[in-house]
TrEMBL record:
<keyword id="KW-0808">Transferase</keyword>
<protein>
    <submittedName>
        <fullName>Kinase-like domain-containing protein</fullName>
    </submittedName>
</protein>
<feature type="domain" description="Protein kinase">
    <location>
        <begin position="1"/>
        <end position="100"/>
    </location>
</feature>
<dbReference type="Pfam" id="PF07714">
    <property type="entry name" value="PK_Tyr_Ser-Thr"/>
</dbReference>
<dbReference type="GO" id="GO:0005524">
    <property type="term" value="F:ATP binding"/>
</dbReference>
<dbReference type="GO" id="GO:0004674">
    <property type="term" value="F:protein serine/threonine kinase activity"/>
</dbReference>
<keyword id="KW-0723">Serine/threonine-protein kinase</keyword>
<keyword id="KW-0067">ATP-binding</keyword>
<keyword id="KW-0418">Kinase</keyword>
<dbReference type="InterPro" id="IPR001245">
    <property type="entry name" value="Ser-Thr/Tyr_kinase_cat_dom"/>
</dbReference>
<dbReference type="InterPro" id="IPR011009">
    <property type="entry name" value="Kinase-like_dom_sf"/>
</dbReference>
<dbReference type="InterPro" id="IPR000719">
    <property type="entry name" value="Prot_kinase_dom"/>
</dbReference>
<keyword id="KW-0547">Nucleotide-binding</keyword>
Amino acid sequence: MLVLDYAVNGSLRNYLDTNVKLSWLDLINYLRSIANGLNTIHANDLIHRDLHIGNILHKGENSIFNNACITDMGLCKPADYIVTENTKKKCLWHFTLYCS
């Protein structure tokens, strides 16, 4: 079981839908926070495989330097994971569901 902090505004997508004007400082802080999350994932020899704006949670205005959290690690695999024809089909199926 994985327990995360409560994300006040849900996903970053939901937050940006209601707050379209962000300062450059806000954008840089989001990028820094996302990059730190990816660095942590990659430092553990993992690949997320499903990173998009809906899988990034907005943690709130008070979290200036750590305002985003990467979630949905369901498709996460080890960096040395071997892709087969069967797993390619499963990945395409998940992507198709997300797009629709």
